[in-house]
Amino acid sequence: MTNKIKSIISGLKDPDLNISLGELNSITNIEINDKQINIEIELVQPITWVIPQVESLIKAALASDFADYSININLTELVPEGPKRHILPNVKNIIAVASGKGGVGKSATAANLAAALSLNGSKVGILDGDVYGPSQPTMFGLVNKAFDVAEIEPGKPMAFPNENYGIKVASIGFILNRDEAAIIRGPLLAGYFSMLFEQVEWGDLDFLIFDLPPGTGDIQLTLTQKIPLSGAVIVTTPQEIAVSDVRRSIAMFDKVNVDILGIVENMSYFIPDDAPDKKYFIFGEGGGRRVAKDHGLNFLGDIPLTPSLRELSDNGKPAILDSSLDKNTQKAIMDITSNVITKLRKLNYEKITASNLEISI
Ligand code: ADP
Questions:
Q1: What is the mean pLDDT of each run of 10 residues along the chain (361 residues)?
Q2: Is any ligand 1 atom within 6 A of the Cβ of residue 266?
Q3: Whose CA is nearest to atom 13 of ligand 1?
Q4: Looking at residue 328, which CATH number applies to its domain?
């Protein structure tokens, strides 16, 4: 009987990787106790988002043949092997959110991505490295939570100070005020970043979202080289002038060998509350999708121009966490998040197969 169960499950596909669970060697154990079937499945990390999908796939596939049994599925994570990182050793995925220029909604996208990721039970942190305009303290309702830098002893771990909605938040804005941050250069700034990355105790995280400064200058290049990024999300608005800056961002990530998870187009269109059948393309149409296609990158999705998203952000809550956000914008953010997960899992799978290949050679 276990063989029959195994053969049924083997034919099901991992929804992100589109490869069968048999081919992936995902089934690690099947046991039958009386009227209960216990199934253990190992999936490429991060798994919190695929758990419900895979569980319901398996249950549906077994439903007709094993209607009298209760089915218990235990899903565990397969993590790419490799040496522990020196920086952020217990963070599984570090995702940079970048933009070619300021004002396109990079920080709002980063905040909503972090918040959406946390909704499925993942442990999430956000590190605001936008030296030109650190806005995560505002977006997470943590203004006036400055670190007292004088009290931080060099080299000593620093207990995590700031958290809201279950998400850990650290910002260059907790260390420096806006005007200071924008003019400080070089080694001093590097020291502050080391403090945020290495001294602050982030603990175990599934995801750390890293809100980069806009643009492609020296700071961005140093940060993307120094931090072991799992991948980058690039945010743009639809018009050509923004899209040309995106090309520079793409070139930067290529130069430092960081995988680009895809492009998000923000402020894509506007649907008025009082005329829901109308759609206005205020900043032009389709630039994000075009630039993604030109460069062979994923288009992760678009986010409409939504006044309540801005209001909620300004008042200290990522919009996706508030039930007042309209369904269309909610869906847009959730779809983007799910596309990010799919791409990350594909990359992690590639890493696992590459390291298995090394072992077998
Ligand atoms: P950036 O980080 O690219 O400089 P921000 O994320 O700070 O940009 O966004 C600039 C302003 O636009 C913020 O007030 C933010 O709340 C608002 N904003 C961002 N995206 C949207 C959107 N899709 N709809 C409405 N307002 C938005």
A1: 94 97 96 95 94 96 94 92 81 96 95 96 95 92 79 74 92 80 75 86 94 92 92 94 88 96 96 91 91 96 96 97 96 97 96 77 60
A2: yes
A3: 310
A4: 3.40.50.300
Query: In testing the pocket of ligand 1, which one of 130, 235, 267, 269 has its CB within 8 Å of the most ligand atoms?
Result: 267
If one counts the domains in the chain, the total is 2
141 lies in the same domain as 285: yes
In this structure, are 31 and 98 located in the same domain? no
For residue 310 and ligand 1, the question of a CB distance below 6 A is answered with yes
On whether both 156 and 217 belong to a single domain, the answer is yes
Q: How many whole angstroms from 146 Cα to the centroid of ligand 1?
A: 23
Q: What was the pLDDT predicted at 180?
A: 74
Res 150: pLDDT: 65
Measured in degrees and rounded to the nearest 5, phi and psi for residue 199 equal -90, -35
- The pTM of this model reads 0.94
Ligand 1 atom nearest to CA at 109: 6
